[in-house]
Protein backbone atom coordinates (compact mmCIF):
# COMPACT_ATOMS: atom_id res chain seq x y z
CA UNK A 1 0.00 0.00 0.00
CA UNK A 2 1.24 3.49 -0.88
CA UNK A 3 2.06 6.00 1.80
CA UNK A 4 -0.60 8.59 2.70
CA UNK A 5 1.62 11.54 1.67
CA UNK A 6 2.14 10.04 -1.81
CA UNK A 7 -1.63 9.53 -2.24
CA UNK A 8 -2.21 13.09 -1.00
CA UNK A 9 0.07 14.49 -3.74
CA UNK A 10 -1.84 12.51 -6.39
CA UNK A 11 -5.12 13.83 -4.95
CA UNK A 12 -3.85 17.40 -5.33
CA UNK A 13 -2.93 16.71 -8.97
CA UNK A 14 -6.32 15.21 -9.76
CA UNK A 15 -8.03 18.13 -8.01
CA UNK A 16 -6.13 20.57 -10.23
CA UNK A 17 -7.06 18.55 -13.32
CA UNK A 18 -10.71 18.58 -12.29
CA UNK A 19 -10.62 22.38 -11.91
CA UNK A 20 -9.00 22.75 -15.37
CA UNK A 21 -11.57 20.54 -17.08
CA UNK A 22 -14.30 22.59 -15.46
CA UNK A 23 -12.76 25.79 -16.85
CA UNK A 24 -12.38 24.29 -20.36
CA UNK A 25 -15.96 23.03 -20.19
CA UNK A 26 -17.21 26.55 -19.42
CA UNK A 27 -15.09 28.06 -22.22
CA UNK A 28 -16.40 25.49 -24.72
CA UNK A 29 -19.99 26.23 -23.68
CA UNK A 30 -19.41 29.95 -24.23
CA UNK A 31 -17.81 29.25 -27.62
CA UNK A 32 -20.80 27.15 -28.71
CA UNK A 33 -23.19 30.03 -27.99
CA UNK A 34 -20.96 32.58 -29.77
CA UNK A 35 -20.28 30.56 -32.93
CA UNK A 36 -23.91 29.44 -33.19
CA UNK A 37 -25.00 33.08 -33.30
CA UNK A 38 -22.42 33.90 -35.99
CA UNK A 39 -23.52 30.92 -38.11
CA UNK A 40 -27.14 32.09 -38.01
CA UNK A 41 -26.16 35.63 -39.03
CA UNK A 42 -24.04 34.27 -41.88
CA UNK A 43 -26.99 32.22 -43.17
CA UNK A 44 -29.25 35.29 -43.09
CA UNK A 45 -26.71 37.31 -45.07
CA UNK A 46 -26.35 34.51 -47.62
CA UNK A 47 -30.14 34.39 -48.09
CA UNK A 48 -30.22 38.12 -48.73
CA UNK A 49 -27.35 37.93 -51.24
CA UNK A 50 -28.98 34.97 -52.99
CA UNK A 51 -32.16 37.01 -53.48
CA UNK A 52 -30.19 39.80 -55.12
CA UNK A 53 -28.31 37.34 -57.32
CA UNK A 54 -31.44 35.51 -58.52
CA UNK A 55 -32.93 38.90 -59.34
CA UNK A 56 -30.26 39.71 -61.93
CA UNK A 57 -30.04 36.34 -63.73
CA UNK A 58 -32.68 34.29 -65.47
CA UNK A 59 -31.13 31.03 -64.30
CA UNK A 60 -28.25 31.57 -61.84
CA UNK A 61 -27.86 27.83 -61.26
CA UNK A 62 -26.54 27.37 -64.81
CA UNK A 63 -23.83 29.93 -64.13
CA UNK A 64 -22.82 28.23 -60.91
CA UNK A 65 -22.36 24.87 -62.63
CA UNK A 66 -20.33 26.40 -65.43
CA UNK A 67 -16.64 25.75 -64.70
CA UNK A 68 -14.60 27.44 -67.42
CA UNK A 69 -10.90 26.65 -67.24
CA UNK A 70 -11.17 23.89 -64.63
CA UNK A 71 -8.21 21.52 -64.36
CA UNK A 72 -10.37 18.37 -64.58
CA UNK A 73 -9.40 17.18 -61.08
CA UNK A 74 -11.28 16.88 -57.81
CA UNK A 75 -10.21 18.48 -54.55
CA UNK A 76 -11.18 17.39 -51.05
CA UNK A 77 -11.20 20.20 -48.48
CA UNK A 78 -10.91 19.00 -44.87
CA UNK A 79 -11.92 21.43 -42.13
CA UNK A 80 -10.40 20.23 -38.86
CA UNK A 81 -9.46 21.68 -35.49
CA UNK A 82 -6.36 23.73 -34.70
CA UNK A 83 -5.72 21.67 -31.56
CA UNK A 84 -6.32 18.14 -30.36
CA UNK A 85 -9.14 18.90 -27.92
CA UNK A 86 -12.00 18.15 -30.32
CA UNK A 87 -12.62 14.53 -29.38
CA UNK A 88 -12.54 11.94 -32.16
CA UNK A 89 -14.27 14.10 -34.79
CA UNK A 90 -11.17 14.75 -36.91
CA UNK A 91 -10.22 11.06 -36.96
CA UNK A 92 -13.75 10.09 -37.99
CA UNK A 93 -13.71 12.73 -40.73
CA UNK A 94 -10.46 11.43 -42.20
CA UNK A 95 -11.72 7.84 -42.10
CA UNK A 96 -14.86 8.96 -43.95
CA UNK A 97 -12.82 10.96 -46.47
CA UNK A 98 -10.57 8.02 -47.35
CA UNK A 99 -13.45 6.23 -49.10
CA UNK A 100 -13.69 9.20 -51.51
CA UNK A 101 -9.95 9.65 -52.02
CA UNK A 102 -8.28 8.52 -55.25
CA UNK A 103 -4.66 9.75 -55.53
CA UNK A 104 -4.75 9.58 -59.34
CA UNK A 105 -7.32 12.35 -59.77
CA UNK A 106 -7.83 13.89 -56.32
CA UNK A 107 -5.93 16.45 -54.28
CA UNK A 108 -6.39 17.31 -50.60
CA UNK A 109 -6.44 20.76 -49.01
CA UNK A 110 -6.59 20.77 -45.22
CA UNK A 111 -7.58 23.49 -42.76
CA UNK A 112 -6.42 23.02 -39.18
CA UNK A 113 -3.14 21.69 -37.78
CA UNK A 114 -4.80 18.70 -36.09
CA UNK A 115 -6.17 17.42 -39.41
CA UNK A 116 -2.78 17.92 -41.09
CA UNK A 117 -1.12 15.96 -38.27
CA UNK A 118 -3.63 13.12 -38.59
CA UNK A 119 -3.12 12.93 -42.38
CA UNK A 120 0.67 12.83 -41.93
CA UNK A 121 0.38 10.00 -39.42
CA UNK A 122 -1.63 8.02 -41.98
CA UNK A 123 0.87 8.95 -44.74
CA UNK A 124 -1.88 10.61 -46.79
CA UNK A 125 -0.40 13.53 -48.80
CA UNK A 126 -2.01 16.95 -49.02
CA UNK A 127 -1.04 19.78 -51.36
CA UNK A 128 -1.95 22.80 -49.22
CA UNK A 129 -2.35 23.54 -45.53
CA UNK A 130 -4.14 26.52 -44.01
CA UNK A 131 -4.73 27.49 -40.43
CA UNK A 132 -8.42 27.68 -39.54
CA UNK A 133 -9.43 31.34 -39.96
CA UNK A 134 -10.31 33.18 -36.76
CA UNK A 135 -14.09 33.38 -36.37
CA UNK A 136 -14.18 36.15 -33.74
CA UNK A 137 -14.60 38.79 -36.41
CA UNK A 138 -14.58 38.13 -40.18
CA UNK A 139 -13.79 34.68 -41.56
CA UNK A 140 -11.43 35.35 -44.47
CA UNK A 141 -11.46 32.34 -46.80
CA UNK A 142 -10.03 34.11 -49.86
CA UNK A 143 -6.69 32.18 -49.77
CA UNK A 144 -8.60 28.87 -49.65
CA UNK A 145 -10.95 29.88 -52.48
CA UNK A 146 -7.96 30.89 -54.63
CA UNK A 147 -6.38 27.47 -54.01
CA UNK A 148 -9.45 25.46 -55.03
CA UNK A 149 -11.25 27.61 -57.61
CA UNK A 150 -9.66 25.86 -60.63
CA UNK A 151 -10.87 22.37 -59.70
CA UNK A 152 -13.74 20.75 -61.56
CA UNK A 153 -15.25 19.36 -58.36
CA UNK A 154 -14.88 20.69 -54.84
CA UNK A 155 -15.95 18.43 -51.95
CA UNK A 156 -15.77 19.86 -48.44
CA UNK A 157 -15.59 17.57 -45.42
CA UNK A 158 -16.59 19.20 -42.17
CA UNK A 159 -18.15 18.50 -38.79
CA UNK A 160 -21.79 19.45 -38.28
CA UNK A 161 -23.38 20.52 -35.02
CA UNK A 162 -26.66 18.71 -34.42
CA UNK A 163 -26.94 19.30 -30.68
CA UNK A 164 -24.66 19.83 -27.72
CA UNK A 165 -24.42 16.07 -27.32
CA UNK A 166 -24.32 15.04 -30.99
CA UNK A 167 -21.99 16.02 -33.84
CA UNK A 168 -21.61 14.27 -37.19
CA UNK A 169 -19.14 14.24 -40.07
CA UNK A 170 -20.61 15.68 -43.28
CA UNK A 171 -19.46 16.26 -46.85
CA UNK A 172 -20.84 18.63 -49.48
CA UNK A 173 -20.18 19.49 -53.09
CA UNK A 174 -19.44 23.18 -52.59
CA UNK A 175 -20.81 24.29 -55.96
CA UNK A 176 -24.08 22.40 -55.59
CA UNK A 177 -24.30 23.46 -51.96
CA UNK A 178 -24.37 27.12 -52.99
CA UNK A 179 -27.47 26.39 -55.05
CA UNK A 180 -29.23 24.58 -52.19
CA UNK A 181 -28.47 26.99 -49.33
CA UNK A 182 -31.46 29.22 -50.00
CA UNK A 183 -34.90 29.16 -51.64
CA UNK A 184 -35.30 30.93 -54.97
CA UNK A 185 -36.19 34.57 -54.53
CA UNK A 186 -39.61 35.84 -55.44
CA UNK A 187 -38.36 39.13 -56.87
CA UNK A 188 -38.61 39.84 -60.56
CA UNK A 189 -35.61 39.13 -62.78
CA UNK A 190 -33.52 42.13 -63.87
CA UNK A 191 -31.71 41.94 -67.21
CA UNK A 192 -29.55 44.32 -69.20
CA UNK A 193 -32.55 44.85 -71.48
CA UNK A 194 -34.37 46.98 -68.91
CA UNK A 195 -31.66 47.92 -66.40
CA UNK A 196 -28.35 49.75 -66.69
CA UNK A 197 -25.52 47.91 -64.91
CA UNK A 198 -22.18 49.43 -64.02
CA UNK A 199 -19.88 47.52 -64.39
CA UNK A 200 -21.34 44.95 -66.76
CA UNK A 201 -23.97 42.43 -65.71
CA UNK A 202 -21.53 39.53 -66.15
CA UNK A 203 -18.90 41.20 -63.96
CA UNK A 204 -21.45 41.80 -61.21
CA UNK A 205 -22.69 38.19 -61.41
CA UNK A 206 -19.12 36.86 -61.34
CA UNK A 207 -18.32 38.89 -58.22
CA UNK A 208 -21.52 37.78 -56.48
CA UNK A 209 -20.84 34.12 -57.33
CA UNK A 210 -17.35 34.42 -55.83
CA UNK A 211 -18.80 36.05 -52.71
CA UNK A 212 -21.41 33.31 -52.33
CA UNK A 213 -18.80 30.58 -52.67
CA UNK A 214 -16.77 32.30 -49.95
CA UNK A 215 -19.84 32.59 -47.74
CA UNK A 216 -20.71 28.92 -48.23
CA UNK A 217 -17.18 27.89 -47.22
CA UNK A 218 -17.24 30.32 -44.29
CA UNK A 219 -20.43 28.72 -43.06
CA UNK A 220 -18.93 25.23 -43.13
CA UNK A 221 -15.95 26.58 -41.14
CA UNK A 222 -18.34 28.11 -38.60
CA UNK A 223 -20.33 24.87 -38.48
CA UNK A 224 -17.13 22.87 -37.90
CA UNK A 225 -16.05 25.27 -35.18
CA UNK A 226 -19.45 24.88 -33.55
CA UNK A 227 -19.24 21.07 -33.68
CA UNK A 228 -15.67 21.08 -32.36
CA UNK A 229 -16.64 23.35 -29.45
CA UNK A 230 -19.55 21.02 -28.61
CA UNK A 231 -17.29 17.97 -28.87
CA UNK A 232 -14.73 19.71 -26.64
CA UNK A 233 -17.49 20.45 -24.13
CA UNK A 234 -18.49 16.76 -24.09
CA UNK A 235 -14.85 15.62 -23.79
CA UNK A 236 -14.25 17.97 -20.87
CA UNK A 237 -17.47 16.83 -19.19
CA UNK A 238 -16.35 13.19 -19.45
CA UNK A 239 -12.87 14.13 -18.19
CA UNK A 240 -14.32 16.06 -15.25
CA UNK A 241 -16.56 13.13 -14.32
CA UNK A 242 -13.60 10.77 -14.51
CA UNK A 243 -11.49 13.13 -12.38
CA UNK A 244 -14.30 13.26 -9.81
CA UNK A 245 -14.42 9.45 -9.69
CA UNK A 246 -10.62 9.23 -9.34
CA UNK A 247 -10.67 11.84 -6.60
CA UNK A 248 -13.18 9.70 -4.68
CA UNK A 249 -11.01 6.61 -5.13
CA UNK A 250 -7.90 8.46 -3.97
CA UNK A 251 -9.70 9.78 -0.90
CA UNK A 252 -10.61 6.23 0.09
CA UNK A 253 -7.03 5.10 -0.53
CA UNK A 254 -5.73 8.08 1.48
CA UNK A 255 -7.94 7.26 4.48
CA UNK A 256 -6.93 3.58 4.30
CA UNK A 257 -3.26 4.57 4.17
CA UNK A 258 -3.68 6.94 7.13
CA UNK A 259 -5.48 4.24 9.12
CA UNK A 260 -2.79 1.70 8.21
CA UNK A 261 -0.04 4.09 9.31
CA UNK A 262 -1.90 4.79 12.58
CA UNK A 263 -2.31 1.06 13.19
CA UNK A 264 1.37 0.50 12.45
CA UNK A 265 2.44 3.24 14.87
CA UNK A 266 0.07 1.83 17.51
CA UNK A 267 1.59 -1.63 17.06
CA UNK A 268 5.09 -0.16 17.36
CA UNK A 269 4.08 1.60 20.59
CA UNK A 270 2.57 -1.60 22.02
CA UNK A 271 5.66 -3.61 21.05
CA UNK A 272 7.86 -0.98 22.69
CA UNK A 273 5.79 -1.06 25.90
CA UNK A 274 5.90 -4.84 26.03
CA UNK A 275 9.65 -4.77 25.50
CA UNK A 276 10.19 -2.29 28.31
CA UNK A 277 7.98 -4.35 30.65
CA UNK A 278 9.98 -7.50 29.89
CA UNK A 279 13.21 -5.63 30.48
CA UNK A 280 11.86 -4.28 33.76
CA UNK A 281 10.72 -7.74 34.86
CA UNK A 282 14.12 -9.25 34.01
CA UNK A 283 15.88 -6.50 35.93
CA UNK A 284 13.74 -7.06 39.03
CA UNK A 285 14.46 -10.78 38.93
Describe this structure in words.
The structure is a single chain. 61% of the residues lie in helices and 12% in strands. The protein has 2 domains: 17-233, Pyruvate Kinase, Chain: A, domain 1; 239-284. The model is unreliable at 182-186 (pLDDT under 50). It is elongated. Strand 2 (106-111), helix 4 and strand 3 form a beta-alpha-beta unit. The chain starts with a helix and ends with a helix. Strands 3-2-1-4-5 form a 5-stranded mixed β-sheet, with helices on both faces. The chain is α/β, with parallel strands linked by helices.
In short:
With 285 residues, the protein is α/β, with parallel strands linked by helices. The protein has seven helices and five strands; from the N terminus they run H-H-E-H-E-H-E-H-E-E-H-H.
Name a few traits of the molecule.
12% strand, elongated, alpha/beta, Pyruvate Kinase, Chain: A, domain 1, 285 residues, 5-stranded mixed beta sheet
Strand order of the largest sheet: 3-2-1-4-5
Q: How many beta strands in the DSSP annotation?
A: 5
Query: Can you tell me the CATH superfamily of the largest domain?
Result: ATP synthase, F1 complex, gamma subunit
Specify the number of helices: 7
State the helical fraction.
Answer: 55-70%
What is the makeup of the main sheet? Answer: 5 strands, mixed
Could you name the ranges where pLDDT drops below 50 across 5 or more consecutive residues?
182-186
Assign an overall shape. elongated
Mean pLDDT: 78
Level-2 CATH architecture of the largest domain: 3-Layer(aba) Sandwich
**Terminus-to-terminus distance:** 43 Å
What pattern of helices and strands is seen along the backbone? HHEHEHEHEEHH
Percent of sequence in beta strands? 5-15%
Q: What is the fold-level CATH name, i.e. the topology of the largest domain?
A: Pyruvate Kinase, Chain: A, domain 1
Class inferred from helices and paired strands: alpha/beta
The tally of domains stands at 2
